[in-house]
Amino acid sequence: MNRVALKTLFIKEIRRFAKVWMQTVLSPLVTTSLYFLVFGVALGSRLKEISGVPYIQFVVPGLVMMTMVRDSFLNTSSSLFQSKINGTITDLLVAPIGASEILLSYVGAAMCRAVITGALVLVVALFFTWFPLHNVGWTIFFTIFVPATFALLGIVSALWAEKFDHLAIFPNFVLLPLAFLGGVFYSIDLLPEPWNAISRLNPLLYMVNGLRFGFLGVADVSPVASAVVVLISFMVLLSVAGIMLQRGYKLRT
Amino acid sequence: MKPSVLRCNHVTKRYGDFTALEDLSLEVYEGEIFALLGPNGAGKSTLIHCITGVSKQSEGTIEVLGFDTLRDFRTTRRLVGLVPQEINYDPFFTPMESLMINMGLMGVEPDRERAEDLLRTFALEDKRDAYTRTLSGGMKRRLLIAKALVHQPRLLFLDEPTAGVDVELRRELWQEVEDLRAGGTTIVLTTHYIEEAERLADRIGVIHNGELLLVEGRESLLERHDGRSLEDIFVELIRRADGRHAA
Question: How far off is chain A from B79, nearest CA to CA, in Å?
Answer without folding.
Answer: 10
